[in-house]
């Protein structure tokens, strides 16, 4: 072989290797994902003690929803304000990585809306996963810290931008600009949801009109004439369109003809627009949170997004037991759906815990204290789900309250309380027990502490405690039956 041919061959091999390496490293387009078969919604529920956390719901048809994890929160924020709202679910183009990005805000802690808007957190809370079920610890990213006078960072969203090869993360910040203080939409770019570019102004309405909630959907094949559509809460629910995430946008109209607005137009006042395409067809739902009346989300649907006049109301839908506040919807492949339902989809029966030596009495919570009582009212105060132990040990259980999802029986100073899980290892250990043969009767049950294995759940003067058990009275007090 001549030297010229040798060099040409070597060059060809290098080119092939480089092309192969690039092909392996570059993310596959979203269109290369397996067909979608279901839907996953991330949301929060409101300003209750555990309402400002991450909840999930599942649907097979896109309009009828079932709460996952028995209606309890799936992820808890242990950073910043220790509360999250407005979660956005993000999938990588290759479908091999996921993020949840949420507002760092907890109104239930006593924060006023004025303080939250003007002196609130300028960070977002981020979780990361490779499979949608195992999530990293939450972390804070201070996206709005570079905005002069920033008062907050609310309602984040993120979308892959093929033009720049990274994600555009956008959110609302309240700050002064040109002498006017109001909410505007800002954006930053990121490739990993850890490091971000400096914030840039994205959307600003005229005069004093603010804008908070904006969500963009990418439309395959540019149905309606555009690749991207966004809906924003800016007094109306304004719909715009573009062929570029960071390009110019064309206003298509609002929903005033349906009697729907964000306040300026009156009628049914809504917020939190949330897009979802129906699997397998060119039809989209724009979900709107009827926060003013507390009725929760409703969908309006369209098969052609080129005009807001094409939207119509859709009455056949069900939202499940939890109230669903501003969130996002992710279309699921069969593999993703199987993993999610395998982790959070099974329904755990509702049980009562009956006392062995006072069989007319059942374990119940009252004012978050725990005791045994007869004739419990409301009945749900004595109802629990025995879920896999929060500490993760095989064969252990935790007691989740039925009427306070996300709250568990835990010992503290060897006394018992009903408390919301804070996500810590200490709480998990305190709320985890081994279900063993009854100390007073093997046909009944006793509950051994996971982190204090020499102690058992028992009642004393009808109050639940965690104690060592050494006599017949103690054995009887520490024996229970799990009943329906």
TrEMBL record:
Signal peptide positions (record): 1-25
InterPro entries assigned to the protein according to its UniProt record, in alphabetical order: AbfB_ABD, AbfB_ABD_sf, GH43_arabinanases, Glyco_hydro_beta-prop_sf
Pfam families, alphabetized: AbfB
Gene3D superfamilies per the UniProt record, alphabetical: 2.80.10.50, Glycosyl hydrolase domain, family 43
Record bears the keyword Signal: yes
Signal is among the record's keywords: yes
Keywords for the protein's UniProt record, in alphabetical order: Signal
Domain Alpha-L-arabinofuranosidase B arabinose-binding: 352-482
Family annotation (PANTHER family): ARABINAN ENDO-1,5-ALPHA-L-ARABINOSIDASE, ARABINAN ENDO-1,5-ALPHA-L-ARABINOSIDASE A-RELATED
The name this protein goes by in its record: Alpha-L-arabinofuranosidase B arabinose-binding domain-containing protein
Organism (species): Plantactinospora endophytica
Lineage: Bacteria, Bacillati, Actinomycetota, Actinomycetes, Micromonosporales
């Amino acid at each position: 072989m001549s030297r010229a041919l040798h060099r040409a061959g070597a060059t060809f091999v290098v080119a092939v290797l480089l092309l192969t390496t690039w092909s392996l490293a570059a993310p596959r387009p979203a269109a290369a994902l397996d067909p979608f078969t279901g839907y996953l919604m991330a949301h929060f529920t409101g300003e209750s003690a555990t309402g400002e956390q991450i909840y999930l719901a599942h649907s097979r048809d896109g309009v009828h929803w079932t709460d996952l994890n028995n209606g309890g929160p799936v992820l808890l924020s242990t950073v910043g304000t220790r509360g999250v709202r407005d979660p956005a679910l993000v999938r990588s183009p290759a479908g091999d990585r996921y993020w949840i990005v949420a507002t760092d805000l907890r109104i239930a802690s006593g924060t006023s809306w004025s303080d939250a808007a003007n002196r609130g957190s300028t960070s977002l809370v981020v979780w990361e996963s490779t499979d949608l079920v195992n999530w990293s610890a939450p972390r804070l990213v201070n996206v709005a810290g570079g905005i002069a006078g920033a008062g907050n960072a609310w309602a984040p969203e993120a979308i892959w931008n093929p033009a720049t090869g990274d994600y555009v993360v956008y959110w609302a910040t309240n700050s002064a600009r040109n002498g006017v203080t109001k909410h505007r939409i800002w954006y930053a770019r990121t490739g990993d949801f850890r490091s971000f570019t400096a914030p840039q102004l994205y959307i600003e309405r005229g005069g004093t009109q603010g804008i908070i909630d904006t969500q963009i959907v990418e439309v395959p094949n540019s149905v309606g004439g555009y690749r991207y559509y966004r809906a924003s809460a800016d007094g109306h629910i304004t719909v715009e369109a573009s062929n570029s995430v960071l390009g110019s946008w064309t206003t298509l109209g609002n929903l005033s003809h349906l009697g729907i607005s964000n306040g300026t137009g009156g009628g049914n006042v809504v917020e939190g627009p949330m897009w979802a395409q129906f699997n397998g067809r060119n039809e989209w739902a724009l979900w709107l949170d009827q926060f003013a009346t507390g009725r929760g989300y409703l969908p309006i649907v369209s098969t052609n997004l080129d005009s807001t006049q094409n939207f119509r109301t859709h009455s056949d839908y069900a939202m499940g037991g939890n109230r669903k506040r501003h969130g996002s919807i992710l279309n699921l492949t069969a593999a993703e759906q199987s993993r999610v339902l395998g982790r959070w989809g099974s329904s755990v029966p509702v049980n009562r815990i009956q006392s062995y030596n006072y069989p007319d009495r059942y374990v119940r919570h009252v004012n978050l204290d725990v005791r045994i009582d007869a004739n419990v009212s409301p009945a749900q105060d004595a109802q629990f789900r025995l879920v896999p132990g929060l500490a993760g040990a095989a064969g252990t259980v935790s007691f989740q309250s039925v009427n306070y999802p996300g709250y568990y029986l835990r010992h503290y100073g060897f006394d018992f309380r009903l408390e919301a899980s804070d996500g810590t290892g200490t709480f998990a250990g305190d709320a985890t027990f081994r279900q063993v043969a009854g100390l007073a009767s093997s046909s009944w049950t006793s509950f051994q502490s996971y982190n204090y294995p020499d102690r058992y759940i028992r009642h004393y003067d009808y109050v639940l405690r965690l104690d060592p058990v050494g006599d017949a009275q103690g054995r009887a007090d520490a024996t229970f039956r799990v009943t329906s």
